Amino acid sequence: MKAGQILVVGGAGYIGAHMVNALLRTNYDVVTLDNLSTGHRDLLPGGALIVGNLGDAGLLDHIFSSHRIDAVMHFAAYSLVGESVANPLKYYHNNVAQTVELLDAMVRHSVDYFIFSSTAAVYGEPRKIPIKEDHPCNPTNPYGATKIAVEHMLKDCDSAHGIKFVALRYFNAAGADTSGKLGERHDPETHLIPSILKVAAGERQHVKIFGDNYPTPDGTCLRDYIHVNDLTQAHLLALEALFEGKESTIYNLGNSRAHSVLEVINTARKVTGHSIPAVAAEPRPGDPAALVASSEKIRSELGWQPSYEDLETIIETAWLWHQKPASG
Which residue of 4, 12, 142, 277 is 20 to 30 Å from 89, comparing CA positions? Predict the structure, then answer.
């Protein structure tokens, strides 16, 4: 089945803009809904942009009535772990309550396919590495709790209303489109790789290492980095699977490779040729020591194969973007 139009909620953000780009390259028609609170109009590579909130029921009715939307992709969550601990109600309101409105509108307008941007934060402190999809979900922060709440909602909406979904649990999205025209731009920037590259670009004096006494080989957190274009390719495969009649499911998305904070910094030093000073800081609340994916399920069921598995290559694509004026 070829869709009429795809509604991308949060399509002006980092991952959302790369998703819009991938959809347009695959000849889908795209409508982006974004309130531009953290997204950027100039990052959108094309398609229609509607500025507004995903919890605005009247606006959603207008969108679904005036466009032939066949599927929704949801990227419009707040995603800062520390902020979610300090201000949990902000996260429950945006990530959960407004998603209720979106799903309610889909039911009203008989839109049956949903791709959800979930997170490895739903697992909490892992009992076993690499993490499989059947690992217990015990999030250690409100951000992860809001994501698992939406996953539960999606299962219930499937049972009650026939909305078929794929929830993709990202590990650490990183990198940038190889064209150099799209990349990661947050304010404030809290993700590790762009924070490191801002030091290399002269925009910051040093990068902070949040915790150096974790039970890991070098004392710093271990994470699984996945290139943003590999993420979008997984979304395309998930979308096609739903259109072909596959049942709702959940997939991890990661490269199944553990990289410590210090390893990432040292690799960035090699890529950029800059010294990149680093200073120790207190651990952030809610940060697990290690998060590494098993992505066997999506590889075997959908044939997903990442193209950017090497950390150095991932950082190289991000560095290309961070040397552009648009990255700021």
Answer: 12
